[in-house]
Amino acid sequence: MLENRSIRGRLTLFTGVAVGLLCIVFSIVMLFTLDRLETQNLTKEVAAVGELTAYYVDRGEFVNPLPPIPRDLVRPVQVVNPQGRVVAATRELQNKPPMASFIPESPNRVASAVVCGSVLDSGRCHIVVAQQVYRDGNWTIYSAAPVLPFYVYPGVIALLIAGTAVFVTAVAYGARHTVARSLSPVDAIRTQLDHIRSTDLGRRVPVPTPKDEIYRLARSVNQTLDRLEDVLEQQRRFCSDASHELRTPITAIRTQMEAALLAPDDTDLPKLCDAVLPSVERLQSIAANLLTLTRLDVGAPLERQPIDLGALVATELKTHQIRGRLVQHLPPGVIVQGDRTQLTHLTRNLLQNAQRHATSTITVTLRRHPPIAELEIQDDGTGIPPDQRETVFHRFTRLDTARSREAGGLGLGLPIARQIAESHNGTLTIQDSPHGARFVLHLPLRP
Q: Origin, by domain of life (predicted)?
């Protein structure tokens, strides 16, 4: 909650500062533009006063002090004769020197400038417009007006400040409200995740209706929870099955050892060892298979090398005493890239499974179908129902027909074989067969 508030606060602050800066820049540009426009208008007004005075000077009708100037156009005005002496002026400039010293040089005989510290007011600057009239020489008429402040009018800057404050507040509030609404699904997701425990992985986070980034986040979280639930369920089942498998030989060993301790004189040590040894071998086999599964689960690196798959299978067949008839077709030159130890383990598990369930014949066939190599191991036993062909690849799974501890395996051979195949970018499946079970291994051929 604090983090979400922090995000809302940071976004609100950023938005408010950004909008405030934009408003300040806009206000400065607006004030500058308004100042330029008003200054131009004021200069035209001052020039108009000078033109009116120039009209009377041209006709020789001016008097001192200068009338007649309309009251709405009254400005400080001076008339300077060709000798540079002020001969007429408005009342506030009587008996004062010229307000400026520049004269027009342009063809239209009009010029303007900003004059500071003149006879008009030593503490202010004025816009002075100079106009020349020819009447027995060049007469100069100066008219002036105080320079406008940069804010033009006090009400304008007050209005801009108030507008900026209101606009920034409104945008910041809107941004905070929008961010809060956008992050509300995140709060719901976090709350739901806080209630999910390892014992209650069936719950899922709420998925918002708008298909935005938070919608995709919620979907990803739920998919992750689905995978996590599957993994934990598989782990629980694996631990339960492993405990069950380990308990059987351990119980047998304990029973035999306790019986020997109760009657040590009647115990035949060689017979005791012969009785205990199968249980020890079963424990050793379970431990070895569990270690192999652990290495496969963590993705231990493979020592990949070119391997003649036909030669590898033939070698493994020689180490097995196959009961019944063996039919094999293993052409040379089917080269795959893989780990020899793991591929040998895979082949051994498939052959042991076939030998365990075959009635009389095991058929081993290797084919080359670029870009894959296909190894087929088929027995003529009772087969596997189609609805259980994936079940046999679950760890510690044995079908009902193979529940006998003497005839059945540990339920780890086929899962290990499939995981080895997948670690080599291959597949291991059970396919249709007229009789028995037909395991098909596909591995990429070496390029």
A: Bacteria
